[in-house]
Amino acid sequence: MAILGNIIKGVINLTDTLTSETNHIEAQEAVLKNLLETAKETQFGKKYSFETILLSDDICESFADVVPYFDYNKINEKWWSKLHKGEVDVTWPGTPSYFALSSGTTGKSSKRIPVTDAMIDAIQSSGIKQVLSLNNFDLPADFFEKEIMMLGSSTDLQEKNDHLEGEISGISASNIPFWFKGYYKPGEDIAKIDDWDERVAHIAKNAKNWDIGALSGIPSWIELMLQEVIKYHKADNIHDIWPNLQVYTSGGVAFGPYEKSFKALLGKPVTVIDTYLASEGYIATQTRPETDAMQLNTENGIYFEFVPMNPDYIKADGSIKKSAPSLTLKEVELNQDYILIMSTVSGAWRYLIGDTIAFTDVEKAEIKITGRTKFFLNTVGSQLSVNKMDDAMKHLEEKFSTKISEYTICAKRFDDGEFYHSWYLGTDLKANKKEVADALDNFLKEANKNYKVARSKALKGVKVTIIDVEKFHNWSDQNKKKGGQVKMERVMKEKKFKKWEKFVK
């Protein structure tokens, strides 16, 4: 009998029973007030008169009126760069203990995003919320005695001046509570290995020594790790090695494009739970099985605003025009794309994280990631978001009975002077390229009226190139780094796309 598991599950059940339903609007207003109170004596707080904002009748409205939008380049140049010169109390009291390195999906050079002790606490609080929500998924008691494989970046953080640097998954894993360390795999020694391939080799070698009940990590790298473990042990699927694997906590990107290829590695179904952890904070987590939408973490150190997704509000570099209106949680509507704006306990203020989301349930504050502002393809008016591209990939998978876990696209002018959408698909599909292009084109015409209009005007057509999915992984390895928080760019500008095509050839 799973005695410990029953005790843990009983505690989760009791805690869930005692916890009342969160009023997310009130929670957000309380978070903003706390952020302003805490930071009012900082350089940023004085510049933008936080004390005066706190005295206003509508703090949310005053905050939006006074403080401008910031993307990473703008806030780093004007504010965070001061931290690297030894200044204190810049955008948050004191100095951050960590900087999260994030190349994201847009380039080789790393962003350095401050991570304060308050943010570590906020991430841990959101992690506890995720654990408590497992009560909703009807998992057996013995699940709570199994080990958890967390595949992130290296926990061997680099010392620099008075702080440590690394990717957010490595920072989070290096701060796991002492009581969790007995469950955590691959363990501290292997997690510190910086080279991703070497780390995975050690995981594969030790895999049969562990009783893994849950996996956590970005889908593309989890898949590669599972493939290596299966290959090393000459197994048919991962359940031959980890028979008690029951849960996969996905994160970083939408799971949809990876669903088919991920399931092919399993021997039996697992519960997939989506999470949304970024370098800027733990944004949302799926809390119930009836939906794959995620609930915003409205109580833990992040205040959210939402800018309606409109091409007129976005500059060419993906940043937001200062005239763009923002909405609070009490003003948003269902099934509308919004650009996500965050203010946090790490001293990010009205910060453009670069993602777009849509609400599936406003009262429960549940969302889905719909794309990236920089991946919103609007050349010649096509107005394609990443979620529409993901839907198109699912359509092709079903139509051609294949798996397409990676893709990228560029709207480029070809030698005939016309614009085409040039797609590269990571798949072993053997179908005729024109047939695939026609199926893709027809689906997008049906799914997006703007795309259909563009195809009747300046967008001449669709071109498809089919390549091995390994090319995408190798591209990430060459241009950034394997594993960790690295995600493949779905949309490329022409200059970057030329480098991509040269690399592929």
Please provide a written account of the structure.
InterPro entries: GH3, GH3_C, GH3_M. Residues 299-363 form the GH3 middle domain. GO terms for molecular function: acid-amino acid ligase activity. With 505 residues, the chain is an alpha/beta fold. It has two domains: 1-374, no CATH class; 379-504, GMP Synthetase, Chain A, domain 3 (2-Layer Sandwich). Helices cover 35% and strands 21% of the residues. It is globular, with a radius of gyration of 23 Å. The model is unreliable at 1-10 (pLDDT under 50).
**How many domains?**
2
| Distance N to C terminus | 57 Å
Q: DSSP strand (E) fraction?
A: 15-25%
Oligomer designation? single chain
Structural category: alpha/beta
Q: For the residues shown, what is the average pLDDT?
A: 84
Rg over alpha carbons: 23 Å
List keywords for this structure.
GMP Synthetase, Chain A, domain 3, disordered N terminus, 505 residues, 4-stranded mixed beta sheet, alpha/beta, 35% helix, 18 strands, 11-stranded mixed beta sheet
Brief description of this entry?
The protein is α/β, with parallel strands linked by helices and 505 residues long. It folds into two domains: 1-374, no CATH class; 379-504, GMP Synthetase, Chain A, domain 3 (2-Layer Sandwich), CATH 3.30.300. Helices cover 35% and strands 21% of the residues.
Secondary structure layout plus pairing:
Elements: H1 3-18, H2 24-39, H3 43-47, H4 50-55, H5 59-66, H6 72-83, E1 98-102, E2 111-115, H7 117-133, E3 147-150, E4 158-160, E5 163-166, H8 168-174, E6 184-185, H9 188-191, H10 196-206, E7 212-217, H11 219-232, E8 247-250, H12 259-263, E9 271-278, E10 281-285, E11 294-296, E12 302-308, E13 337-344, E14 351-361, E15 366-372, H13 386-400, E16 406-413, E17 419-426, H14 433-447, H15 449-455, E18 459-467, H16 470-479, H17 494-504
Parallel strand pairs: 1-5, 3-6, 3-7, 7-8, 8-9, 17-18
Antiparallel strand pairs: 1-2, 4-5, 9-10, 10-11, 11-15, 12-13, 13-14, 14-15, 16-17
